Amino acid sequence: MRILEVQGITVRFGGLVAVSGVDFHIDHGEVVGLIGPNGAGKTTLFNLISGAITPSSGIILFKGDNITRLKPNEICRRGIARTFQLVKLFSDMTVLENVMLSCLFRKPRVTKDEAAHESMELLDFVGLNGTESLPARELPIGGQKRLEVARALATKPELLLLDEVMAGLNPAEVAEAIESIKKIREKGISIMLVEHVMQAIMDVSDRIIVLHNGEKLAEGVPCDIASNETVINVYLGGTISC
Ligand SMILES: Nc1ncnc2c1ncn2[C@@H]1O[C@H](COP(=O)(O)OP(=O)(O)OP(=O)(O)O)[C@@H](O)[C@H]1O
Ligand SMILES: [Mg+2]
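Above: inputs. Below: predicted complex with adenosine-5'-triphosphate.
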């Protein structure tokens, strides 16, 4: 069953068509990878789904409801959460407060104590236990990315959009991030992730969508994408294991 359906989504910035007539869907419980060269339109697609920008044309359905022109907070309340490629934390607030804010934003309302308790559990889940009293800005980049994931999870999403959460991580941290994505999926949350770390994309994705110049270039299971000549030419640059 489909959790997200995107039909003919297009957005223009002046003369540039950043996303052009893109169609795809995500099934409940699926992990879908979104890849493509720099400037392909991946983050713009996330901005469209999460309501940060409004499409020029096209439709986005979430659990069958049209969410195309809803505001970001309304889309979040319906069950779509995201992280940002360039982290957007409240840098002077503590790690704990950053997560608590997301809990307190939810409906039905929770008390401050409940929010604190739940936030501590989420920090533990993403491996940030022991950092809760630090100002968010003092976390290294890998920690800030984990905090963004905890904050997104605190909204209790059914669909999570992860934009390059592994960028800048070392191989050990990438391995941890892969495990973390698998654990999120085990909670029943559907995931769409943008990554340039191919080992991670190939490992966790059920299906991969390739964007190029704003258009969908290819779509398929990891091994089909890894051996797709066009995808190799425009993005992968060579064969990779799947
Ligand atoms: N708000 C905006 N105004 C004008 N142009 C924009 C805006 N947002 C994105 N673009 C342009 O749209 C295109 C797609 O950008 P986008 O950030 O979606 O690429 P991306 O696939 O996420 O790339 P990367 O892998 O580098 O993150 C780029 O040419 C970018 O400069
Ligand atoms: Mg991007």
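The chain has two domains: 1-72+160-168+192-242, 80-156.
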